[in-house]
């Protein structure tokens, strides 16, 4: 026999004279007619379609795929499937790829992770020499002191993190989300899962059948002729059965309350992963069994594999797993592996059967298996040691459903406890018990029928035949050391050490040693860890119990969880015009608004000197109807509303119960019981909710209907001394100062569009009209205004110009000039707040604020050097250097040619004419003068014409 | 006052190319596949508020959570019980005024406090039709859209792609069809989200179809 040298795992691969690829196998899944090129650590390789990365490399003779987490020991294939802890690889810019599961794709660049300078010679393997000092708890004990050095420790330790690399670049593929509501979800597509899905579908249920492998079939896929025949029959039935959605390469990652079941699906074109949020009426857990590794010295050497691993390699991928094998078999599956190996041409050096008292003490080799030491001390040369020492029932989904597994010493595995399972969760197949394929199918069919019955509220429960677990010797550890957790490099000694240090509960041992906390999440390790803890504590395995299996069942990418977030945006009807005319977009909440059309200062001058129009559609608008609207307005606004005549508009401010300013706007009375309320753009939803809350909770007796109509109208503000000239060309409404005075509302036709609402109000401080047009005609009216006003020099202006204009006029923006602590009197609403009203929201707090008279004030502010515009939020200092306030709004005024602002400031500095110090963000101090808040046209002559 | 150009109404979803029908600019495209999305915003949309437990539900003929065809005096309309004490009535384009008046007259007899409001221009109305329509919606909506849970004639309010949406199952020629009713300003966004979700199913834009 010639043992394969370790070095042939990396760049020497192509030098291997004899490929490990076998001739055609009955159940193989590869397409021998085609080849797929890929690279492994920079070297060119070839696979067949259907090959996993690991099977392709194994076919080329590669035996070492990775280095271990802590000691950087060479690791090979152990399970040759989804769980294989030795085959977590880097593929392109994707780290932690399951190499024994991921199919090879053309051009894949595959490499080992966290190995330097190479997989073959990894410097960090020096950790093995220091292994005695890296025992469990090493990090906790070593790096706790001196505490100031922790940042340095962290920096160094990060270099040892066992993970791959990612790229910040976003690829073309994306992560997707989808919702699903099947009657029945079947977790596991082996014979039991397929049979259960078929029976459920035939029972009238819609079924989602989820399988983590790329094909349905479970263990039948790598079985004998009879298994393959049964598999073909089951697959054909599933394919022909309506009502079954089959998801392969997909994993049920958890079970939450009321059968909320997340499923991660891969293999979709253009989609990296899809997270399906399924809500199932019934869940069938049918994951089969997971073969359990055996714990002995050297059990992590490349060349030590589970019996299911060699059967997969031989039967699915036609790969010869070694040249000379020792097989430790305690069950029929191990016996079948012996037959497969012999058929594949592997020399069987020895078959050791614990059922006859045989055993294995240790595996020997340096970088790869070279010899096996039997229980009697015999040394057998071999490059392959196959173990078949027992099974683990992956009860995660059942545990997440409330079940607690019970240990059965006769079967040497934990089993579900049917008494603790909720009605909407069932289990089928190997997780319940053992049997022939026919027995598994019979049991699963009954479970499937019962699942359908429960999902569809059928009348008569289905009788489910018993499926007893087969007897199996208890084989966990040879007592010679070895690794329990291959992902975390946790050894048997680590477990016993932890117990000796007082961590005598399996949950504590888990947290102290990190056993079962790696990517395989305990599926390979838990039972062995429990057995070792039990042995160390002198308790039975049943008394020791298991750790808790929590979601997720297997690691989930952050991308799958995030998906593609939905980020709604809102557009006004005039948005196409804004885009065509080069508007710079401003994201204001969900709204996309024109910030300016190139020169905000010019837009200000156009309004002051002629006429401008601005799209103010986002202004919140509520239609109020009913005889009790005045009471509602009186309750919510700080000023009085009982005597608002039809055709008039009034400005109002809402405060919360604590007197803090909530929102402002105008409300116009359109008819006897009909009002239109406006709110700030950002406050539209809040105010609607606020109004409805008061109506529904405090005054359900009031006859008021509130309907949000923000986007029912396209809203346009026409501002400037020529605004009347412009609008009069397009409307039938009398716009004369006598016929339509300041703070009035009219309804009429604009540009041929009926049912428009016109307000004469003035946020900009100019003569202006705010027209609200049925939204579908918004673009038409806007275009008509621009066309009709060409000779007047009409110009569009954006949000920035509007901010400047209103600042010049000293108008407050709620949320900018106020904050979450700004009460009404601080906002300068002294004349508006009517403390003599019987009641309104915030009245008690505002009365108290008024009585205390110690609140900050909102004032105008002008830097003495008018060329300096202090950034908003700049602090204002008192005479001792303390903070006395802040700049809330600040701009260069095109009208005045100097900087102006608004500020909140302590009352003793608020007098007009006071000089204050403003500290700029760069640390410089400037002097500014307190002024009246109104910088332009304080008498209001421009807007009352 | 000078009216130089006749008013042209436009829906919230961009058209490419457009054609004018009954004063509305609508999409001229005609889909050839079995899965379509159309902008039905030109339909008259009248919003009704009335006591949910009074006489008005009987006067309108539909309760909360259901939708049904009816003739309230202006021809064939779809009455949707869109919320508790809240209805949406859809009618042919440019009939909102008459429809509103007919509903007000009908409800006046109940003596109840009611409000009837024309929201034609304030809402976007999309129609998603095809056997795979529910599959498309499953990408943006958490509701179970199976026939047993949401059969033809179901009305509900939920989140579609993070936008509050009234969803009405209104099958056409025994093919699943959903009317999706949102704030007008969200119409383009929702259409884009649906087209994205429906791309794998070959969702196509088609022109205005109307109520029948």
Automatic annotation (TrEMBL), chain A:
The chain's coiled-coil residues are none
Q: Which family does it belong to?
A: Belongs to the GcvT family.
Where would I find the Aminomethyltransferase C-terminal domain in this sequence? 858-937
Entry superkingdom = Bacteria
- Domain named GCVT N-terminal: residues: 575-837
Q: Which UniProt keywords apply?
A: Oxidoreductase
Q: What is the lineage of its organism?
A: Bacteria, Bacillati, Actinomycetota, Actinomycetes, Pseudonocardiales
Gene3D superfamilies assigned: 2Fe-2S iron-sulphur cluster binding domain, sarcosine oxidase, alpha subunit, N-terminal domain, BFD-like [2Fe-2S]-binding domain, FAD/NAD(P)-binding domain, Probable tRNA modification gtpase trme, domain 1
Query: Which Pfam families does the UniProt record give?
Result: FAD_oxidored, Fer2_4, GCV_T, GCV_T_C, SO_alpha_A3
Against InterPro entries, the record matches this protein to:
2Fe-2S-bd_N, BFD-like_2Fe2S-bd_dom_sf, FAD/NAD-bd_sf, GcvT/YgfZ/DmdA, GcvT/YgfZ_C, GcvT_C, GCVT_N, SoxA_A3
Record organism? Actinomycetospora flava
Residue ranges of the SoxA A3 domain?
483-564
What's the protein called, per UniProt? 2Fe-2S iron-sulfur cluster-binding protein
Q: Which parts of this chain are annotated as the region Disordered?
A: 1-28
Automatic annotation (TrEMBL), chain B:
Q: Which InterPro entries match?
A: TrmE/GcvT-like
Organism superkingdom: Bacteria
Q: What is this protein called?
A: Aminomethyltransferase folate-binding domain-containing protein
